[in-house]
Fold this sequence. Notes:
By secondary structure, chain A is an alpha+beta fold. In chain A, 50% of the residues lie in helices and 19% in strands. In chain A, strands 10-22-21-20-11-18-19 form a 7-stranded mixed sheet, with helices on both faces. A 6-stranded antiparallel sheet of chain A has the order 2-1-3-9-4-7, with no helix packed on it. Chain A has a 6-stranded antiparallel sheet with strand order 12-17-16-15-14-13. In chain A, strand 1 and strand 2 form a beta hairpin. By secondary structure, chain B is an alpha+beta fold. In chain B, helix 1 (13-25) runs antiparallel to helix 2 (50-64).
Amino acid sequence: MTKKQKKMLARIIIAFVLEAALMVLYKSGKFGMIEGKWYEFVPFTVPYLIAGYDILIHAAKNIVHGQVFDEDFLMMIATFGAFAIGEYEEAAGVMIFFQIGELFQNYAVGKSRASISALMDIAPEYANVEEDGELVEKDPDEVHVDEVIIVKPGEKIPLDGVVLEGSSLLDTSSLTGESVPRSVREGDDVISGCVNGSGTLKVRVTREYEDSTVSRILELVENASIRKAPVENFITTFARYYTPAVTIGAVLLALLPPLFFGGSWAEWIRRACTFLVISCPCALVISIPMGFFGGIGAASKIGVLVKGSNFLQALSDVKTIVFDKTGTLTKGEFRVTEMLPQLGVTEEELLEKAALSENYSGHPIAAALKSAYGKKIDSARVSDAEEIAGHGISVKVDGKNCLAGNLKLLKLKGVEAQPCTEIGTVVYVAEEGRFLGCIVISDVIKDGAKDALTAMKKAGVQKTVMLTGDKKETAENVAGVLGIDEVHAELLPADKVSEVERILGTETGKDKTAFVGDGINDAPVLTRADVGIAMGTLGSDAAIEAADIVLMDDDITKIASTVKIARKTLSIVRQNIVLALGVKFIVLIMGALGRASMWLAMFADVGVAVLAIMNSMRALHIDRK
Amino acid sequence: MKKKFNLQDLDCANCAAKMEANIKKIDGVNDASVSFLTQKMTIDADDARFDEIMKEVVKVCKKVEPDCVILM
Lengths: 625, 72
């Protein structure tokens, strides 16, 4: 508790004890000598003022400023009204409980604010800069590009840069939620916000602090609360009309019945006062943004940045998720996945021939072959390379005529070969007119992609769609393995946008569609979808710019977790709205009918606020299932 | 130009909402947001008249919530 809160607590306790004592004394008739006198209320003003003097001062200031619908002012009117009609105990009691409610709100909000900032505790406090052979601690703000900083073991990396000297393991968990450390050595890029492991690193700064990963992430999270969700906007609008409406209701309640229907002034003023006691929409105004804030905080804890409450709400309604294939579901890198040598040929021989043949080619296929081969290629063994466009390569390896390419190439050169039915890109290899075998190269499905899709379905996603520029067979194969519902292959980048637009057109009701891509050339699609989710390989600007939600590492299993967080947040928000509005309206009706005392109204108001805030705090916690 | 300010002693959520609504009404302010949870205010206003507009903003805040201080 802060000093201010402690002081408030002390005031509340003193006022409470006094109030209780006075009530006992009154009941036992000890105040008989002043009972019925005009100054009977005086003893109660003591706890009243101890608890609420600041409310009165504040209210007075606000009337001067013309703020009639201020909660403090209304509270003052309500309690003055209570004094006027002789309900002294209520007047003081209501003021005390009002302050208890305020204190609790203050405390709870402070608590949740602290736990959220703890989640975002990635900002570095200082950077060690080498100046004339000495280490100087500087504000990261003051360090510029190309300066050299030293990161000692256990310190946070303050700025993005490149390692000049040293090697270490980095803990990226505060950024990605991933606990597996990343190893770095000379020449590797490092990202601010990671915690250095055991080695000391010398780092050349490549980005100013304000452009560094840490500041951009902090900026995103802080700005997230600015983009309000539709529910939040509804509450803001509601709050604007609620207080004036209830206040006007109170005035009418106090005046009309006594003036026109002969009601008793005291009775109707008492009813009007119960109205004023519940005139503040605070429970809603605090708890709803707090729920969203908590949800965004929980997502960032697992390494998912949500750029606004509105996207969290949209995500909770997502029924269809559209994926880009390459780089999202697959790793986007070609690899030798299968070797099918003919009888009498070993896999090594086959691969060696293929790699040597493709030595001069810059094609991704050639790169895959060479990396699978692994050994250094002696270029002297290769000569007379000739690339036959659309077919492959004819080349001399160790003086022998070799062919590496597709089936058409072998046919062209009159070599008999068995067609290979494997999915992927197939390289046929031949030597001196003899077919040696074929090598299958394909893009590899990401680890955990299948689990990720199953988890999404479990989290309530109804349909998964895959879009790709790849060939139909390859696409269908990947979709089959992963269990994707719908595949659209051989699409140009522009086709992807129109395909997503078509899907958006089929949405019914509140259903939303999300698109998941790696942000490299699908920025238009990311923007077009209701929710654009980018696989933001740490620090990729393009992806972070275009997307609404960024997965800090490439782990698509986090999509399902984020959908769950969004659903949970929204259900908490809806519970709070129903709870707060429900209780308020019931008490208003009971108050108008004379069935609610000021005590009840106060308890309803404070109680609902407390419950709603505590409920909102649940949004911060992540279910690890 | 967009600028961010920290707020001190912004104690009531409803006041934050009121401050935001009133600041948006100031002539020259393109957009504004007052976040009760982060205790921050973001003002997007005309470059040329920014200082003048900020004076107006301070006035509006004082009116709604006398205790709240804008740290500039």
